[in-house]
Design brief:
Elements lengths: L3 E5 L3 H12 L3 E6 L22 E4 L6 H11 L3 H8 L1 E2 L4 E4 L1 H14 L3 E5 L10 E4 L7 H11 L4 E7 L2 E3 L9 E2 L9 H4 L2 E6 L1 H13 L20 H7 L3 H4 L19 E7 L6 E4 L8 H8 L10 E3 L2 E8 L1 H4 L5 E2 L2 E6 L9 H19 L12 H12 L28 H24 L1
Parallel strand pairs: 1-2, 1-7, 2-6, 7-17
Antiparallel strand pairs: 3-5, 4-5, 8-15, 9-13, 9-14, 10-11, 11-12, 12-13, 16-17
Helix pairs in contact: 1-12, 2-12, 2-14, 3-4
The structure holds flavin-adenine dinucleotide.
Pfam families: GIDA (PF01134)
InterPro entries: FAD/NAD-bd_sf, MnmG-rel, MnmG-rel_CS, MnmG_N, TrmFO
Organism: Antarcticimicrobium sediminis
Amino acid sequence: MSDTLHIVGGGMAGSEAAWQAAQAGVNVVIHEMRPKVATFAHKTGNLAEMVCSNSFRSDDDEQNAVGLLHWEMRAANGLIMAAAEANRIPAGGALAVDRDPFAESVTERLMAHPRISVSYEEIDCLPDEGQWIIATGPLTSSTLGQAIRAETGAEALAFFDAIAPIIYAESIDMSKAWMQSRYDKGETEEERTAYLNCPMDKDQYEAFIDALLAADKTEFHEGETAGYFDGCLPIEVMAERGRETPRHGPMKPVGLTNPHQPEIKAHAIVQLRRDNKLGTLFNIVGFQTKMKYGAQAEVLRMIPGLEQARFARLGGIHRNTFINSPTLLDDRMRLKSKPNIRFAGQITGVEGYVESAAMGLLAGRMAAAEIRGGDLAPPSGNTATGALITHITGGAEAKTFQPMNVNFGLFPPVEGLKGGRRGRKDRYKAYTDRAKTEWQLWLDAAEG
Ligand SMILES: Cc1cc2nc3c(=O)[nH]c(=O)nc-3n(C[C@H](O)[C@H](O)[C@H](O)COP(=O)(O)OP(=O)(O)OC[C@H]3O[C@@H](n4cnc5c(N)ncnc54)[C@H](O)[C@@H]3O)c2cc1C
């Protein structure tokens, strides 16, 4: 077996993977297509370029899941976190960085590493030989995209995300909502009660449609197209086509009886579906949207039962190449059909700079362990990194899989703690304490 690890893509994930593997004693070649081949979002030839915001989001490692991910990556001597720290600029509780010096310092440290070299070229296939990590991100070049598609099948590779908003189950008002599948369909009680329903009367529906039409929307980035729309029309575009259209689509009120008011027929019903096996997260069915985040939360809280909704992630539609990881990858991030290929970063269906770098960290360490004749098991699902990999390689529903940010809804509950808004602070502290202990145990075992 070759002792060299090849990494395609020198973004957040590829840079971190290269660093981790090289630190573990493995030779690494990073294959990066920029600056020879450009993308519509990248502006430089630097590795780890931040394409939009300059923020790694909250740095609070006690009360915030992404802050916890920072903590875990720092504890694992992550390059991305070290460079972020060295180029930090004031941003309150967030970790914001001076983007060009940040990317330059990542590039310099990788180039200076005795076990790392960079080859500036586009890779257009999934090689049969050697150990590879594909970390080509949301803007994977189209030739490589076609090669991935040929290997995985068209259904398993998406070129756009269409994210419906995801809500914490515990923030839904069940005195208004109820669980029932349309026409009570299903073999088991669980299937017959698989959906969570929120009813609207006529006035509520009309006010909701007005708010949808008036809400601020985001525009497509240059280079994006809207040609994918037919399969996943945003809810507000549906309303633009006709005020009654959503009522004949995702908001249709048929086949459902409200147990709180069985004698009243709802004018429209919004349905939510479980988003993870734990049952802690629900997505709003058919509500992919381009509404801006602030407007979106306001409009969605008009839905009866969701007045106090807390969002694990808001909806969106972006140019985004990602694979159906729950069906394609094993828990070592290897392609089941071609195990010499691993995937890492945003292309695995995580979302964001930090989450992508964290998946790079794992893939780099797992590949290095394999090249050195060992095997590295994934970290516990109680850690932030572990919760993410558990989600993408099995915890998420494969049929409706869409990119995911890290959030506490992905964590198994800590027993014996109060639910709801009141108990939140203690709960989050318990999640982060548990995660830190288990992450340290995993690191100790991995570094043996
Ligand atoms: C327009 C846009 C705006 C975004 N804004 C934000 C934001 O504000 N905050 C946030 O957290 N996330 C944002 N994201 C998501 C962000 O891009 C990712 O979270 C993060 O950069 C993903 O890291 P990655 O390593 O997976 O991919 P990237 O960082 O994109 O790195 C992938 C690398 O692979 C290279 N590459 C692609 N194809 C090939 C090939 N065939 N051969 C060789 N090299 C190749 C690319 O040039 C690139 O350098 C945005 C994404 C887009 C598209």
